Amino acid sequence: GWYRMGKLMLRVGHFNQAEELYNELLEDASNDSDRAFIYHQLGDYQAEKSSRRSSGLSYFLQQHWSTV
């Protein structure tokens, strides 16, 4: 259900919506197994967000230095 929806959101790049969904699921999680899964997904979200940010910076620096 909702966990799969969150994974799909991450896969298609809807990171903010996935984060919101997982944070809501975290509030309602009834056991440690569910919380562990949600924290793992939030970690994947942060890693992907960081990766995209650093690859954007890398692209910018490449473009800047190639024109100097």
Give short descriptive properties of this protein.
3 helices; mainly alpha; elongated; 68 residues; 0% strand; single chain
Describe this protein's structure:
This protein is mainly α and about 70 residues long. It is about 90% helix and about 0% strand. It is built from 3 helices and no strands. It has helices at about 1-10, 15-30, 30-65. Helix 1 (about 1-10) runs antiparallel to helix 2 (about 15-30) and helix 2 (about 15-30) packs antiparallel against helix 3 (about 30-65). The protein is elongated and about 55 Å long. The N and C termini lie far apart (about 50 Å). This is Tetratricopeptide repeat protein. InterPro entries: TPR-like_helical_dom_sf. It comes from Rotaria socialis.
Our count of domains comes out at 1
Q: Cα distance, first to last residue? A: 51 Å
Helix fraction? over 70%
| Uncertain parts | none
Radius of gyration: 16 Å
Shape verdict: elongated
Structural class: mainly alpha
Secondary-structure element string:
HHH
| DSSP strand tally | 0
- Classify the beta-strand content into a percent band: under 5%
Average pLDDT for all residues: 82
Total number of helices: 3
Q: How does the major sheet shape up? A: none
Brief summary:
The protein has three helices and no strands. With 68 residues, it is an all-alpha fold.
